[in-house]
Every structure is written in C-alpha cells, then in structure tokens.
Predict the structure.
Amino acid sequence: MKLRKENRNGEPNPPSPERRGCAAYSEKGDRVVQIKNTPEIMNGDLGTIDEIIDDDGVYTFKITFDDKQVEYDVKDMQNVELELLHYGS
C-alpha cells in the first residue's frame, strides 16, 4: 500500500504516533475497503470516512459503509485499508 506523504493541501502528512497503519494517514473523505469480516461489516465492503474525532489523543473514526455508519477506534482501523483502486461505480 502506497501511503500519502502529503495532505490535500500539499503540506507534509507525517504519521501520528497514536495513529498507526491506515489510521495514521486517513483523512475525512477518504474511501476505505474492509479487509476482515466483523459482525457489522463484511470483507470487501467499501466505505467513506465521515469524521475523525481526536479526544485528547484517543481517536474515533466514523465510517459509512453503504447506509450503515460504524465507529472504529485505532485498533479497529486494522480491519480497513485505504481504497487505492476503483472498484466500479
């Protein structure tokens, strides 16, 4: 997976020590793909990060898959990767 080195404004986007893997480089509006089944979301489902909440270094990611919004913490973000390919319309 090629990670984004700059944010959408062209500024450096260093990984946060509190946010690792996909969570370190994710931004609001990014498309993600679920890579592991969970009780709510199936492997291969595509979603969009709606919001990233920073509560004194404790991050929560609100992601919408189809019509279902889930909240993932940094550990849960191990179950998703940034969508780098176009899977269709």
